[in-house]
Amino acid sequence: MGKSPVASGARRVGSSGWSLVAALIALLVLLPILSVAWIALNPTENIWPHLIATTLPRYLASTAMLAGSVAVVSACVGTGAAWLVVMYSFPLSRMLQWLLLLPLAIPAYVGAYALVDFLEYAGPVQTALREAFGWRNSRDYWFPEIRSMWAAIVVLSAALTPYVFLLARAGFREQSGNIYEVARALGAGPFARFWRVGLPMARPAIVAGVAIVMMETVSDFGAVSYFAVQTLTTGIFSTWLETSNAGGAAQIAGVVLLIVLLLLGMEKASRGRARYHGGSRSARPVVPVALTGWRGWLATCLCSIPFLVGFVLPTGVILSHALRHPDYWVDAGLAQAFVNTLTVGGIAAVLTVLAALIMVYGVRLSGRRLPRLLLPATTLGYAAPGAVLGVGLLIPMAATDNAFADAVQALTGYDPGLLMTGTSFAIIYAYCVRFFAIAQGAADSAMGRVAPSLGWAARSLGQSAGGTLRRIYMPLIRGSVGTALLLVFVDCVKELPATLLLRPFNYNTLATRVYEKASLEQIGQAAPAAMLVIGVGLVAVVLMARSEHASDLT
To answer: Which residues touch 3 (CB under 8 Å, ≥6 apart)?
Structure first.
């Protein structure tokens, strides 16, 4: 029996509908980035000559120095640690493979507050030095300036090194053990095997990790502002908030966006070459060489340094403040910030994952060219810094809000207020755009594991496209959907720049409460909120570690 023309037409209309919805979601995700580009190219007041003659060169130089230094430190530390844990067996080596991931749970701005509190004049280090050597004040001894570029490099390197470590470890693990046996037989020593064999083959993965580190460094605001380092991101805030020049802020945001796009292109190109070193199926995996005696303990100490600096130090400092002041845990402001964080983060996570599911399913269902081209473009939101998204959202939203309120008031005499920028709507929208790539990647990967024949069978039995998604796909991919929800929520909790720019008056999340209290040197009051942020981040790291462990077993 042939297909009914009516049924075939209905399916074509249904596919076109899903294709249209997928394209609309992609447009909403790309809208803030397009908005930044438009405002930067068509500002109400062109201050390019002023920026180029005054602040832009300084912002560019500081950003380049910071990003380059953090990239070098992260590449050296992350690659070295990955090489040691993959190629050698030494005391605590298996545990360190997972401990080295824990700094991912510490936002860079929390690490900055902890380092300054630990090393400042009244902190435990300088206090101990004065007591030990009998110094009375700072004129009796020299100590490096804490709020400076070098401290920003240390904090950002400690927070971002796990990205390089993760990708470098995967690159070394995928290599064949036969290659190293041949190199050893030809007389290559440990350093020669690393420099001439392991490093060249893992270079694409390492470059990809370094590109991610540089993107995160360029987009950071909380840490660099606390250390008084003037970068392009801090320039966006100062140009907009201090001089009230939205066009100038958009132009600086456009420069940031161009830099991030270049780094994203480098990362994509590196990932495209990341498998050229894969061996055959018969290739044996790398067998770790046992390090005994002082060599083994030296390797343990070297691999422990990133964990101690990136996780133990900031967690210990913040936790000590949180325990010394238990009354700050019952502060009404903390409770409200916690509720606000759960609300905006939860809503954003649900909307982001739902939109990603609909878009990925629509693209797969329609098979049209435009949605397929738009699908990878939506990942740009994750690469765009929060400050850039804030500029791209707040300026057009504020204009729309004011125009709508004026029109309603002129017609009815009632002032509805600012419906988007005066509520948490703008924050939720920014979160959805910023972290859409996470949900989209999880949805695409999960749906790719479902046999297409199941969907075809359901459609042939009369199920609609929506019914097939709900009854066939969702039960099979709910684990991946749950993971995506959690990861998006965790990133929403940690996001600072976009929240600072887009939040309504007197509206705090945990991240902005930490920033506000720490900026006022009230580390004790910031500690409870910081510990909650760290706790949420730990959930994500543990989830990642479990996923890595499961993939190792398979």
So the answer is: none
